[in-house]
Amino acid sequence: MLRTAIAGSLPKPVWLAEPDKLWPQWRASGTALDDAKRDATLLWIKAQEDAGLSTIGDGEQSRQHFVHGFVERVGGIDFEHKVEIGIRNERYKAMVPQVVGPLSMDGRVHAREAQLLRAHTRRQTKFTLPGPMTIVDTVADRHYGDRVKLAFAFAELLNREAKALQADGIDIVQFDEPAFNVYMAEAADWGVAALERAAQGLTCKTAVHICYGYGIEANNKWKHTLGDEWRQYEQVFPALARSRIDQVSLECMHSRVPLELIGLLAGKDVMVGVIDVASDAVETADEVAETIGRALQFVAHDKLIACTNCGMAPMARGIAEAKLSALARGAAQVA
Fold first, then answer.
1. Would you tell me how many other CB atoms lie within 10 Å of the CB of residue 155?
2. What is the mean pLDDT of residues 65-75?
3. Between 20 and 30 A from 1 (CA), which of 49, 98, 219, 276?
4. Which CATH number fits domain 3-61+110-132+167-334: 3.40.50.720, 3.20.20.30, 2.130.10.10, 3.20.20.210?
5. How far is residue 173's CA from residue 105's CA, in Å, rounded to a whole number?
């Protein structure tokens, strides 16, 4: 049967955090917050299994944001004095922490979540980390003065955590790099190299998720400026095809990505986005199967993983659950 997975994030229950927000505020603190994060993670593990997915993630329930959830445990970063900057090439503004000294990391970042995930499912597991280029684009550098040096400094810390995740029993470590679709020349020049540094020495499967962003207004407006064909992947896929990364994602459902670009990823597993995270309309199983069928013209059946276009963090919980079911049912039709 076709493999199925989520890209990474899932909505946080309303009792855990503010709903429908990309940077939600937590509803509790201290031990109560730790318990709520654990409960939400267990809830989504069960929901993914019930939907029929073959690869299970933690839904990033313990992270306020997919980048800052990692960065908040890194030394040399000031979270007390955040500043507003334009991220993703000024697509939207965000309040971000400042890099004020050499980066360091004391101990683990995601041990609790990864071990919880591994202990509560017998299925294949995937755990997500932000990629180095995307981290660089989501912090304000006041120390290194060089994006490449900062990216490789983050890559070393990511590599340490990724190896620990592997030791926890995680089957796939995925790095999220939406910045690859924004700074395409830099991604091919040094972004993929920094990504490979983050994945260096791993023997588990490695993946990189490259999308057109969460279903938020700023991203949706940006997509309307990209023309009739979205060819950003064309500039970075050849570099990824030459890399040691095992799996590469692309956005397909309701996108204008020419599917023949999958051919640039010969030899790689391809995570094909068949669920639109920018719409609350729930796909039918037939629609999912049709998108998978079109992708199978360019990638072998055993190399395709049916996936969501991106994370679902800002989405309503009930809609996300319905979309997970559609994902699995549509993939089952093709199998």
1. 24
2. 95
3. 276
4. 3.20.20.210
5. 19
